[in-house]
Amino acid sequence: MASAAARLNRYNIIRRRRRAPRPRIFQDRSNPLEDLEGDEVFIRFRFRPDTILWIVGLVFDDLQRQTHRNCSLPPLLQVLAALRFLATGSFYNIVGESLGISKSATGRAARMICRLLSSMAARFINFPANLDSYKRTFFEIAGFPNVVGCVDGTQIKIKAPSENEGDFINRKGFHSLNIQMVCGPNFNITNVVAKWPGSVHDSRMFKESLLCREFENGHIQGILLGDSGYALKKYLMTPYLNPSDVHQERYNGAHCRTRVLIEQTFGILKRRFAGLHTELRLSPERACNAIVACCVLHNIGIVRGDILQFRGNDCPQNPTDYAERNVRVLDGKAVRDHIARNYF
Predict the structure, then answer these.
(1) What does the alpha-carbon distance between residue 295 and residue 306 come to, in Å, rounded to a whole number?
(2) Distance of alpha carbon 254 from alpha carbon 251, whole angstroms
(3) Is 327 helix (H, G, I), strand (E, B) or coil?
(4) Taking 80 as the threshold, does the pLDDT of residue 221 lie above it?
(5) 310: nearest Cα among 190, 127, 149, 186
(6) What is the DSSP string of 84-131?
(7) What is the mean pLDDT of residues 111-139?
């Protein structure tokens, strides 16, 4: 005679077999580009519809996969999820709810898009082949000659990492990455180094960067402007700490008015992608991918006219007349003194 437990077990098995299958529920996914006005799309995703579609085309082949799953996430929604995450710095579940997708799908899409865009950095973040236009435009600002870029570092807050946590605590006491950037005269980013923890000094980042070696070897002909935290070099001009005459004071003023472009570039970048201003809730490696992706998107926006309108580059004077043949062999202090005496 079967025990009561065995009878109950058979009863439950029969009941499960007779139970009707639960219907699958597919959540409706609308297309925000069709449902929202252009300005509202820009506010939510930081780009207008035509630029968003251009970005989708850029990564489409890497996002389109053969799958037998029902309702797989289309490339457009993957790009929108990534843009919304970078634009707000919010949690994946909140970003996903605004688009009708799950938290896990949002996270996968954001990580994939950031990785793909960061892999394209060499295509969108670089110096032009001919630097004369940069030198002319920089010269228009305050008369500083031969400038091809402004360099500085900025701290991007991240969550506390699980490994080497102390290295990521910066001088202000929070966990961060120190990111080196160089900007052009139109707020475009021409170089970015995103790999150093927050405790590393700006001068060390530059000294160990590929960009420094390119200037040292003469592959880039021109001058960078940096603050007093950098070492004075013949290709990197810093301000006078204690100006002793009117020429040095004017030099400092021109240096400040020109170098402020890198600070303005940081401001534009962080206002557009709020996650860079508040906190990236990512591991250091993923945060680096996200930061470089934001720089790529920033330059895409500039090239496509999706942010700013710029003035022309016409200039009645020629800043490249600066006597490079005479000062190229001098050290940084001699070059700085030469510029101060002859231009200011």
Answers:
(1) 14
(2) 5
(3) helix
(4) yes
(5) 186
(6) HHHHH---HHHHHHHHT--HHHHHHHHHHHHHHHHHTHHHHS---S--
(7) 92
